[in-house]
Amino acid sequence: MFLSVMAKDHMSEKFYLQKGNDMGIITLDSSRVKASGALFFNWVGEPDLYRLSDESGHIVDFRMEKSEMNFEIKGDFSETELIFESGNKNNQLQYYISEFDYYSNEAERINGEFQSAKKNNVDTKDIESTYKEKQKEFEGLVKDLWSKRSEDWSLQVALSFANMMPDLDQNIKNRVFIDRYFEYFDFTDSLLVGSPSFYNKFDGFFKTSQIQNILKRNVTKEIDLMIQHIFWLSEVNPYAHECLVNYLMDSYPEDKKSSLYNTVVKTYSLANSCEYVLAGKNLRTRVENDKNFLAGNKSPDFILQNCLDMSLESFSKVNSEMTLLVAWSAHCENSVDLLIKIQGLYDEYHDKGLEVVAMSIDNNLGHWNKCVNENGFDWINACDKKGLKGEFATAYNIISTPSLFVISPDLKLIAKPITFFQLKKEISSYLD
User: Fold this and answer.
1) CA 48, CA 67: separation in Å to the nearest integer?
2) N or C: less crowded end of the chain, CB within 10 Å?
């Protein structure tokens, strides 16, 4: 892939070429504007949505539809003009992005006038009328683009920049605000999900005053409802779910935003696992015990019941550089789907020292055996017929499937990833 950008107003400035993935926005390369005003990037990739950013955080989102592209940046970023080749849809994308910037700036300007008028006891009717007119213009624009988006990728991407114009009094209920913020955001669009525009939307959402106030109050119930509602909006696309949880866990780590982090983990786990029923006391005990089972802790040993490898008696007998322990059930579609993904990792990393121990909690050995054989799972397979009451489920605090545990050769817990991407990251960082 080759990108050429003419940026004569940015001599010697450093720019970064970025792209989205399962985890967030990654930097592919960096380069400085040459004396001629030219900026070049050459990389291995494919046509997709990309982002150009400078060291001050200004961004340009664009789509490369071919292996080569060039465009021009005229002026500084306060009044930037982006010029692509004639007929290139990126021209239309940038036009609508600038339109949304205009309405955002107008909202801020008029709100300033409104607050000043209220403070000085000046009549605000004209200001409110002007604001309502701008809101009406904005809503008309986004509705028009929404109706045409299916035939034009530039409109779909542009709509991800369409942040709502709030009411002047700011009295918007949180749930209604969430709905309106994502009203013109399509979670089913395969081009958009996982792109810089996708993460840009969520980054903007979590920086809004409404959400910042929720996080500042740190009321668990409010945070739970907010996260659950976002996951509900995005559940139409499992990939969007996974990108969202990776982004949130990375942006709001447990040591800084524990309430938000724990809500994200809980919500994603429940949405992407098969729940089982335990007595209330047993359930609470396992949840609390799991919180104390942290990286560096000794992993409990257990008997590999009904193990298909007759030479192995217990988990501690597994000899590997890294062991992935998977608690699963043949009756759980999420479990089977995840194991099919893990098969690729196993093929790639088995020779480097990865072993997979798939410990089922099925009580029907025939159904479990059939599932293993039909899918060709050729790692260490075992099954504890006692299910949640068995030795394994009790030792590892299992309350739902699938559950993942990455374990070192000396049986120390390395990590408890909850998404496939996090699992890939742990394995590659340990074995590559």
Assistant:
1) 10
2) C
